[in-house]
What does this fold into?
Amino acid sequence: MRDGREGIPAGKLARSMLSRSPDLPPEPREKSPGPRKVIPFDPEARAAETGSRTAMTGHRPSKFILWVEEVTVSFDGFKALNDLTLTLEQGELRCIIGPNGAGKTTLMDVMTGKTRPDSGSVYLENRLVDLTTLSECEITRLGVGRKFQRPTVFGGHTIFENCELALRGNKTVFRSLFGRMSKADHERIDEVLETVGLSERRSEMAGLLSHGHKQWLEIGMLLAQDPKVLLVDEPVAGMNHAEMERTAVLLNRLAGERTVVVVEHDMEFVRQIARKVTVLHEGSVLAEGPMDRIQNDPRVIEVYLGA
Amino acid sequence: MTMVARIRQRLLQMHSLRAWFCLLGAAVVLLAIIPLSNGILPVRSALHLPDYLVPLLGKFLCFGLAALAVDLIWGFAGILSLGHGLFFALGGYAMGMYLMRSIAGEGVYRSALPDFMVFLDWKSLPWYWRGFDNFAYAAGAAVVGPGLLAFVFGYFAFRSKIKGVYFSIVTQALTYAAMLLFFQNAAGFGGNNGMTDFKRILGYSLQAPSTRLTLYVASGLALLLGYLACRYVVTSKFGRVLAAIRDAELKARFCGYESTHYKLFVWTFSAMLCALAGALYVPQVGIINPSEMQPSNSIEMAIWVAVGGRGSLVGAILGAWLINGGKSWLTAAFPSAWLYVLGAAFIVVTLFLPKGVAGAWSSLVQRRRR
It folds into this structure.
């Protein structure tokens, strides 16, 4: 697995030209409250909002679910993320795009605890803990799920066991040694397997699945994990057209109930699913907004779409 | 579900009914028929097991237990330890210290101290020898001490994400360092010569056939219980998580499992099993010295498991018996050939039987069924 970096950064020379200009879309930081202010999390409000992801009421304290604040990550002097600030709303489906080296995967690594940032913080939900101080598993337990770029399933386990391992619940050594699966757990796995269409093959080895099926199994595992925020890294890489469409439907269904963040290269796919798009460039947010506006933004065209 | 049904279900998860019967059969042979053929049958009977073979078989049982420990960490967690000889030897040393204390006053110098301490002109026992005159304390220390060492070592190694061949090398280095330490006279463990001349355990003479038979049965029970414990662990969800960590650690972490805790648990448990084997081994062979910590000993343990079948608990035990049986026979019949045979066995298994004898057997059975 590559370590966050995505090859040579595009357009290094253009860096100075592309620094923030006044006509940028509103800074995400402005929307987000101050870094130390604690917003109480209100589960009912969250549940009420989940139905209408476009509702921009703005009054509810739980409108946002994830704050990435002024995060900087550098590898050997190269800034993979440069003072990046980003906020995610409850239940939205956000696409993050950008050329190679823009920092997309590094951003995911920071949000999930795989990479520690040099500075900056990431807050979840009620803003009580800074995710950058936690380990991968602690972050997962708080409700941030991640799907890798390459499909990673446990090849030596059956499809059912893969879901069992992912299932939300107590994951301590003691519980694994002496715990038992409840009836509700079984039902939950049945439901998940139904959703991703792998019910019939539950006792097959996951390692024998085709690439596309592995992707779905991995999404199924994330469903079993039941995260609040779902980070999906290039979900349609290597998929054919039909599989891609199915994935789009699946991701759309997931959003609303939970927040879904998709990092994707395939622009056609992004157009299919995206409502709001964030364009990263050289470790910072270059533009953010609805897809049609982004598509016509001259700076975006210059660094990414046109290229 | 009632408690009984729940236990029954769990037992059937560990083994099929048929496998339980096979296990029962093996236990009867090891723990009843073999001891009885030595203890009850007349010496002239063809089926009588001669006394000199009892400690040898007891030794094999201890090796089987050590092989289980290595298989648990290597076959199921994918962590190749080349340091299990250390835990084995430390367990043995703790037992040796008890046996030395129980002959206090009977040494060459008639001193209350072990002979080697008199030789060093020491006047009193070092602090770490205190309590070893008590059998229960020594037995506890034999298992807990190495377990503690494994825990501390594992904590730092796993926390620093030391993996694969690096981990193997570090464990090997640890064993080697410990060997050098134990070679020192000043360390207080008898230096080069280690400890020997043991006479009795819990008041029973170590030379008496009945004591030897009891030690054999104790080793057999330890092996059986060790096997059941390992089987319980690997068939629980813990075992599935362990395999998941072995195959894709990062993914397992992103599923919410703190892989360090899982590895640390299985590593410590494995070290304790191995130490138990060493503690049972020493009274049966009558000597413990630093050569037990030789790097080659730990490597040989890995070979037992590789030959028997990594990832199969029964295979690991069989591998230990196969190699040690071959060693006992060949070192007597063709002393110079043994190492070549061992090397050749390892190469053949690596090339042609990647899953060891147990793997070859099960694929044979599967082909038959088709």
User: Anything to note?
Assistant: Chain A is about 35% helix and 20% strand. Chain A touches chain B at residues 1, 112, 114, 135-138, 140-141, 145-146, 148, 152-157, 161, 164-166, 168, 171-173, 175-180, 221, 225 (CB under 8 Å). The longest helix of chain A spans residues 211-225.
